[in-house]
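[09:14] KT: can someone run the structure on this one? pasting the chain below
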Amino acid sequence: MTEPFSQRKLMRSSKRLTSLKNREEHDRGENEMSARVQEKAAPQIAEDNVKRRQIIEGARAAFLEQGFDAASMNDIARSAGVSKGTLYVYFQNKEQLFQAICSEECEAQAETLFKVDPDDVDVEGTLTRLGVDFLRFVCRPDKASSARTVIAIAERMPDIGRAFYETGPARGIAMLSDYLKSKVEQGVLAIEDCEVAAAQLIEAFGATTFKPMLFNFGKPPTEERIRYVVSIAVRMFLTAYRVHKALD
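[09:31] RB: done, structure tokens below
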């Protein structure tokens, strides 16, 4: 009676081991297949990114040359050096293309220009560097052209105007505001509303540099002019908000 029982027990154990082995082989096979799929997909993803970049650059050139309203999808395809069919694979219409261009530019502006170190004790130097880099970026002719286009179409395409502002100006103000808040907490600055103060400073940077370009009133400012305007704006800002410690 013991022997059949032991045999049944051994058989059950053998079946469990076989099942576990089969499961491991199945999982290993799936992992290997997944890895092969990923290896095959990687070049395709890279190719798609290159093609998408090619289309965006072509659209940017077409919009700058002809304006948003005048440029057609045929013009964009020709400028990008792709077929119209390929163009529609990536973007359904020129509105999507223009929104992609604006989002890309705004994100680049926010991530590169408004990243500041809250632990940097040189507030004047930090704000000066930010202001100079900001004006160098926005005072390029193509940036003013993009802003004009957004303003022109925002009323009939509010989603584009909203996306442009949220990913660009609003994000820049928020990032600068966070920096100012850190300086208030450190007792360096005394600001009642950091969001308003950040917007005021950015406006002071662009009021006599970018804004004339926006309305085709002035040319891009020189490096000397940029530094001159930024120095005045920062000096005025710190006069209003810097904490002045009492002398003993």
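[09:33] KT: thanks! The mean pLDDT is 83.
[09:34] RB: yep, looked fine to me
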